[in-house]
Write a structure and sequence with these properties.
Oligomer: heterodimer
Number of helices of chain A: 17
Order of helices and strands of chain B: EHHHHHHHHHHHHHHHHHH
Radius of gyration of chain A: 23 Å
Strand content of chain B: under 5%
Radius of gyration of chain B: 28 Å
Strand order of the largest sheet of chain A: 3-6-7-2-8
Shape of chain B: flat
Strand content of chain A: 5-15%
Helix content of chain A: 40-55%
Number of helices of chain B: 18
Chain lengths: ~350, ~450
């Protein structure tokens, strides 16, 4: 079943299908809940050309739904430019790249530019040449069966300019800086910033709180970075609890099995999933798998087995609390006016 | 049950099929100074950061269908002999294929296809790369350099905007600047493929008024592409009508008299009046220049403009081949003697070009003078080469000594690679200098015990 097929199905259509189709159907469900909507609005504000931010960091705890949000942003840009894409077959308003961990000590820029080039429908990626200007003479690197990373970078920047791309979303951006520190980290960030400045394309880096390391490099670089915090639903906040319950209700409405109202378990689910919708979705996915294996009948023990262990919950929660502590003074909208600062003092 | 959240549509993140190549906008569209298709392909390859031959072989040719082989063969020719901007079947296929790949619709304007009703395919495009250095300078300031279609037309010798002769060789041929290594050439308008330097320069040769005028006539002709409804037949009818009017006004109704006034052979005039063939573009431009009309008057309106006055002494039409018995050999001999006394000798072919006489006729009719001129030029070049080789030998000597000290045998090819790898600033090493150094070391080895 393809992704587009899945998105057109309803729960009732899936009820009579086989177990695998049911699991695939539920896995393809993505919901636009309150926090996604709010965070998306913040992102769109920073994406405005006048915002002054070349690079936008979208950070949040693990399992909160950052990748879903990133895809949502990408879709939003595509939808808004659908008319122009129809009229101009060369126009690509937005790209979505997953920064992969290459398994080596340092990040593979070659792989990154290659993936980006594929998104931009760039031909002949394996035959790019680099233009050099030295002593008033323009030449190209001799082509000897392979292209250099610099050639790929030049081609990537050229593709962004000529395709009119305004937004580049890079998911799992933590891999960009993994294993890097000091000058190496600075050079990684400068590479990203250079792409953004030379092409006038906004780059959204999506990842965990580790991306904050990029803010400590240099004031000149930090000035052009905007931070958007995709927070979790917080226990003890009435509005958050009601919104989380709505999410549980929505997900249950798409579960292709008969089960009692899961909303009664919302507080327990909220605690176990640390308020993260992504973890909630994965938990319900596991619960569905256990139920289907048990003949398609739901039992409470399926839900109990699907929950994260206490150790896992503690680990996710402590990471989330650490990150939330760092984000207090750096996220978008956290700047204080003088009068407010005086009151705070 | 309370309200539910809406779903996110996963299918909307799929980007629809995009054009294979960028939708690069052609330069100068709608003007007489528009880009040529040759230049557009080079700029497209540069935008994609690939070599032009890879773009053509791997992307454009496979989309051209049955004619893919011809497309590759056309590009495989020397840059000066590519006729992409013409008016035949091959440019048509190029335009159609590129339009499909880029999504740009107006590419036929970069060729002479919109004007093919007025053209016959002989002597249309020039077989040399040419440019106006002043135009390139202006383009460089504006940040966009491209090759103009006007420069590829054989009838144009000068730039109509700046009044300078079109150039066809970079100063690296004269100054002996270091050349680029093989395979390092940047194929882009405005850059020399041999030395990599910009071709834009203020050092230009002023053009004669005739050459500028003819270039302006061709520029006006290029702007006729917007006129619709013209066919070869209507152009032929208009041309004959205009020719008859000119005969009436300038030669009292006698076509052969008009032919003599313009310096045309009688057969040519008779052919224009009787056969169903239009003149070539260079000849058409010459006639328009000599009679003070325009190509529009000759091929579209067929009438003389209201303010037209018959020229008192019309310029002679330039003929590509003059008959030997029509040449004033006394004047040619006098000119050749003068050429033999100048400080910097010129080749016999260059002398023939300046006098408008083929070098074969010079050799046949003035053999002694021509031989003396050629010998003088060959000796001058040899002296120049010797001096240059001597200079290079001194430059390369330290590297040869370094190679010898490292225990390697000094052979010409090894020395060439040694210098190329260790001294890239010297450019491509001179093989003659390497051979001289090799001979020196060989002699030294033979003399030493």
């Amino acid at each position: 079943m393809t992704r587009s097929d899945k998105s057109k199905l309803h729960r009732d259509d899936v009820m009579h299908l086989d177990d695998k189709s049911k699991r695939d159907y539920f896995a393809g469900i993505r919901i636009r809940h309150e926090l996604i909507r709010g965070t998306l609005e913040d992102l769109q504000t920073l994406m405005d050309p006048e915002s002054g931010a070349d690079v936008i960091l979208l950070v949040g705890p693990t399992g909160v739904g950052k990748s879903t949000l990133a895809v949502s942003l990408h879709q939003d840009v595509l939808q808004r430019n659908a008319g122009r894409m129809q009229a101009d077959p060369g126009f690509v308003p937005s790209i979505y790249i997953m920064a992969c961990a290459s398994g080596e000590m340092q990040f593979s820029w070659r792989g990154f530019y290659w993936d980006g080039g594929k998104q931009l429908a760039e031909p002949l990626l394996q035959k790019k040449v680099e233009t050099r200007v030295a002593e008033g003479r323009t030449s190209v690197t001799p082509f000897s069966g392979g292209c250099t990373v610099i050639a790929l970078r030049m081609a990537f920047e050229s593709a962004i300019q000529h395709r009119g791309t305004t937004v580049a979303v890079i998911d799992e951006a933590v891999h960009l800086i993994s294993g890097a520190s000091g000058p190496k980290l600075k050079s990684q960030m400068e590479a990203i910033k250079s792409i953004a400045q030379r092409t006038s394309c906004k780059i959204a880096l999506v990842g965990s709180y580790d991306l904050f390391d990029l803010l400590n490099i240099q004031a000149q670089l930090t000035r052009r970075i905007g931070v958007v915090h995709f927070r979790r639903y917080l226990t003890g906040d009435k509005a958050d609890e009601a919104a989380f319950a709505k999410v549980v209700r929505t997900l249950q409405s798409h579960l292709p099995i008969e089960c009692p109202n899961l909303e009664q378990y919302a507080p327990e689910l909220m605690r176990s999933c640390v308020g993260c919708v992504g973890i909630l979705k994965e938990t319900l996915q596991r619960m569905l798998a256990f139920s289907l294996r048990d003949g398609g009948t739901w039992r409470e023990k399926h839900l109990a087995k699907a929950l994260l262990t206490e150790t896992q919950v503690k680990s996710v929660l402590s990471e989330a609390l650490r990150g939330e502590g760092r984000v207090k003074t750096t996220e978008f909208g956290s700047g204080l006016l003088q009068s407010t600062q005086d009151k705070a003092a | 049950m309370g309200g539910l959240c809406e779903l996110l549509d996963g299918s909307a993140s799929v980007i629809p099929q995009r054009s294979v190549l960028y939708r690069l906008a052609p330069c100068g569209l709608g003007t007489a100074f528009r880009e040529s298709l040759n230049s557009y392909v080079l700029r497209l390859a540069d935008a994609h950061c690939v070599r032009p031959q890879h773009l053509i072989r791997d992307i454009i040719a496979p989309h051209a269908g049955a004619i893919a082989g011809s497309i590759k063969a056309e590009w495989a020719r020397a840059p000066s002999r590519r006729y992409l901007s013409g008016a035949g079947r091959l440019p048509e296929v190029w335009v159609e294929t590129l339009s499909r790949l880029t999504g740009v619709a107006e590419l036929s304007s970069l060729t002479l296809l919109p004007l093919r009703w007025a053209l016959i395919h002989a002597a249309l495009l020039v077989d040399a790369e040419r440019w106006c250095p002043m135009c390139l300078l202006e383009m460089r300031e504006q940040g966009r350099i491209y090759g103009q279609l006007l420069w590829e037309i054989a009838a144009v010798q000068a730039c109509p905007r700046h009044g300078v002769m079109l150039s066809s060789s970079c100063r690296c041929k004269v100054d002996d600047r270091p050349l680029l290594r093989r395979g390092c050439a940047k194929h882009l308008p405005g850059i020399c493929r041999d030395c990599g330097r910009a071709l834009a320069t203020r050092a230009c040769v002023p053009a004669s008024q005739d050459a500028v005028n003819k270039a302006r006539i061709v520029a006006e002709f290029l702007q006729l592409e917007t006129i619709r409804g013209c066919t070869k037949q209507s152009a032929l009818v208009a041309f004959r009508r205009c020719l008859l009017r000119l005969t009436q006004e300038m030669a009292a109704g006698q076509p052969m008299k008009l032919a003599r006034m313009l310096g045309l052979p009688k057969a040519t005039m008779q052919g224009w009046l009787k056969s169903p063939q239009l003149p070539t573009l260079p000849r058409l431009v010459d006639v328009a220049h000599s009679t003070g009309t325009s190509v529009k008057d000759l091929l579209i309106t067929g009438e003389l403009p209201h303010q037209w006055r018959a020229p008192t002494s019309p310029a002679q039409v330039t003929t590509r081949s003059r008959r030997a018995n029509k040449v004033c050999w006394t004047a040619v001999e006098r000119q050749l003697r003068e050429f033999n006394t100048v400080a910097v000798p010129i080749a016999a072919a260059e002398a023939g070009r300046r006098l408008g006489v083929s070098v074969r006729w010079l050799a046949k009719n003035l053999p002694e003078l021509t031989r003396k001129m050629s010998a003088r030029y060959i000796e001058y070049r040899a002296r120049g080469f010797e001096a240059l080789v001597g200079q290079r030998v001194e430059q390369y000597r330290p590297y040869a000594e370094e190679m010898h000290a490292a225990g390697h045998t000094v052979l010409p090819r090894k020395l060439f690679r040694w210098i190329r790898d260790r001294a890239p600033k010297l450019g491509i090493p001179d093989r003659r200098a390497c051979v001289v150094l090799y001979a020196e070391y060989k002699r030294r080895n033979a003399e030493s015990p």
